[in-house]
Design goal:
about 150 residues; alpha+beta; tt1808, chain A; six-stranded mixed sheet; three-stranded antiparallel sheet; 11 strands; globular; Type I restriction enzyme HsdR N-terminal domain-containing protein; HSDR_N
Length: about 150
Amino acid sequence: MDALNLPPFEHKITKSGANYLIFDILRRKNIVLTPEEWVRQHFLHYLLNSLGYPKSLISIERGTTYNKLQKRTDLCVYDTSGSPYMLVECKAAAVPITQDVVKQVSVYNQTIKAKVVVITNGLDHYCWLVDFESRQFKPLQEIPVYNKL
């Protein structure tokens, strides 16, 4: 897997047939290790270990419906009242963060209504504060630390 611009973490990788699997600490099971999953697992551990988010406030691949279509979010972080706080979209390292990716996440967030949106491919990370009244994204210089919410 590609080296990423995220801190390393203690990961457990196994092989099953032709697939490599990585243990997901939230889902408590092995997941097929794709390039996107590699980024998702790194970012999850970054949220937990570097930014101090508790596991209990993070969900992976949460289902949502937009225009009658079923969609899945990569990571969703909730505040202590259970409202979506941060929506994280992960792409494989080889996938550039384009305007189409930003549009995809903003469409998802119309339903989820997270206050912060993050897009990462493990190399580049973009973070915005969402102003729902003006319907604008305000770029943030860094991803918020949990104890500063």
